[in-house]
Design a protein that fits this description.
By secondary structure, the protein is an all-alpha fold. It has one domain. The protein has five helices and no strands. It has helices spanning 2-15, 18-26, 32-58, 60-88, 93-117. It is globular, with a radius of gyration of 18 Å.
Length: 128
């Protein structure tokens, strides 16, 4: 759910009003229908993943697929950002922060997957 909330904020910043929001937070100019269209499509991808993650949080049958999707999503973004840092140089502090968060959430997702894979043993409760 933590990832879902964070991604909703990022998705909306990309897609609701990209021509006014993105220049302020990323020094990125968005002009014309095609560029706006691309950012709204990115918003749609992000919101679709959020829906899967929320479903996984509330329906145990979807938990594992949701966490797997989150791990691939987070590490995929982080991998692209690390490649960009190596090839293009250092981005803004905001994007460096995104990279750190994505790596952290990817690792957290792996830990959650390990927990989901471990058989849960019911322990009897002691009644007085």
């Amino acid at each position: 759910m933590f990832s879902a909330v964070g991604l909703v904020i990022v998705a909306l910043s990309y897609g609701v009003a990209p021509s006014s929001v993105l220049p302020r937070i990323l020094d990125l100019t968005v002009e014309g229908v095609d560029q706006t269209h691309v950012f709204r499509a990115i918003m749609g991808i992000y919101l679709g993943l959020v829906a899967l993650w929320v479903l996984g949080a509330y329906r145990s049958g979807f938990s594992r697929p949701a966490v797997i999707a989150e791990v691939f999503f987070m590490f995929g973004l982080a991998c692209g950002r690390v490649i960009s840092i190596v090839v293009d140089g250092m981005p803004s502090i905001l994007l460096i922060g995104y990279t750190v968060v994505e790596i952290t959430l990817g690792i957290w997702g792996i830990l959650v997957l390990k927990k989901l894979s471990t058989p849960q043993i019911d322990t009897p409760t002691v009644r007085e």
